[in-house]
Amino acid sequence: MESGFRSTDWQQLTFAVVGMGLIGGSYAKALRRLGVKKIIGVDTDGKVLRQAQEQAVIDEALCGAGPGLQAADVVICSVYPAATLDFVKSAVPFLKSDVLITDATGIKGSLPEDVQRLLTGRMEFIAGHPMAGRQGSGFGMSQAEIFDGANYIVVPAAFNSSGAIEWVSSFAGAIGCGQVVQVDAVEHDRIIAYTSNLPHALAVALINSASYNENTKYFIAGSFRDGTRVADINPYLWSDLFLANRENVLQELAAFSQQLERWREALTAADAQALQEMMREAAIKRKDLY
């Protein structure tokens, strides 16, 4: 499609951030750090909006779509996929004719095409996914620094202009992200099942083990803390993400079960060599990650 307005003169751009939770709040704080012209915060929670204004994180607060969005050059949707669709549908009449819309949802599916179908003129949706987060949820846990050095995934669709793809890649770097990669939605969701969905499921399962009790906290060190850090997550958001990507997640759970079976067999057979081989293999792969 024809590219619309895609300036990277950050200080002259107005951004609207939809959803002022952990990621949306962090986006707003990163934008403030970047020194953009204006930040519009959109959220249904008036208390969160007041807090964001009191902290000078946003310049204007909106409880939903309305005329206040007309100033936005870029809209960042940091809400559930279904909520993204609902918001865009209600916001289209108020948006600039060449507005760029992006998102932060962890699972893409058909979202890019579904959103683009709602747009008119030179409005364009380009899917993005910052691999950034931290323990907890909500605006109070947000911080600009979660993007520093984080990976950022651009998920272009067939309809996307080269200008939009280049813009969102530049934007990722501007807010502090390190590596920027491009994959399509199908590949994104398949990989994310392994690198994000599975680790979150395992953290929850580890905490929920029958072995957990009131004395567990006296017997933990770094490995347990690291392994369970993301067990404290937003259950509403993550249940949606798991279900939206359930086929890929089920495949990863099956693959992980096979690895556990290797451990069970080696321990049952008292096979020290097999245990050592698995750990050496993992050490080599782990070092390649960083």
TrEMBL record:
Keywords: Coiled coil, Oxidoreductase
Coiled coil stretches, renumbered: 246-273
Statement: the UniProt record of this protein carries the keyword Secreted: no
Protein's GO biological process: tyrosine biosynthetic process
Gene3D superfamilies: 6-phosphogluconate dehydrogenase C-terminal like domain, NAD(P)-binding Rossmann-like Domain
Record Pfam families: PDH_C, PDH_N
Pathway involvement of the protein, from the record: Amino-acid biosynthesis
GO molecular function, a single term: prephenate dehydrogenase (NADP+) activity
Residues covered by the Prephenate/arogenate dehydrogenase domain: 13-290
Thylakoid listed as a keyword: no
PANTHER family recorded: PREPHENATE DEHYDROGENASE, PREPHENATE DEHYDROGENASE [NADP(+)]
Assigned protein family: Belongs to the prephenate/arogenate dehydrogenase family.
Protein name: Prephenate dehydrogenase
Organism: Phascolarctobacterium faecium
